[in-house]
């Protein structure tokens, strides 16, 4: 999919792409990922749906200005601005990782109406964050000064740990590439340092207000965020379903692509009547 759209928002450049026709489906990525993880799924659905992908500021191909905050609150404001710019009427939203908290905040705090919400292995409620995450939060300035070859090794190991299966070298290289170089290295540690669990607590307190179809999908082998968190999230949302995906870790898009694509199509068939 071509990411040929760009929204200018408060000095940021947010890159996005659109394809297909039919009911709107918007994909939200997480950290340290980008829209690239969702592009194959969006492409597959574009025959029946109008699909949108976007890179959050600080990620992927969007701007990475060190002066711009990249916390949950800002990203939810960006997502709200994007949806309004696209003039979408109650889109179906699909979120992974950090995108869960962002999409929840956009609807629960900013009042953006959705038709449905599917959340896969999301950062949405506390507690969250790996030991590495906590280390970065305590020493963001030190780690951002690592020699480039050490930094690259750290990022590759960290990203690799998100998958239950060994990643193909081409996929690992593609996921690592945005975080290399002076700009990428700084952005990598800034987005972790910006993590604020207070936003997750705020989301959790409002989950009972969700009145749309919601499904939660979770890899049973997620080493970053345990299945128990997904079970607690689904239990807190009125009427939510939980689907467990065996032999899948946090990078469910790469661990179980066929199962996830099948779940997405089945879910959208039910909630969009397609």
From TrEMBL:
Protein name per UniProt: Alpha/beta hydrolase
InterPro entries the record matches: AB_hydrolase_1 (IPR000073), AB_hydrolase_fold (IPR029058), AB_hydrolase_sf (IPR050266)
GO cellular component term, pick one: membrane
Entry annotated with the keyword GTP-binding: no
Domain of life: Bacteria
Keyword Flavoprotein: no
Keywords: Hydrolase
Organism: Amycolatopsis suaedae
GO process annotations (BP): acylglycerol catabolic process
Gene3D superfamilies linked: alpha/beta hydrolase
An example molecular function term from Gene Ontology annotations: monoacylglycerol lipase activity
SUPFAM superfamilies: alpha/beta-Hydrolases
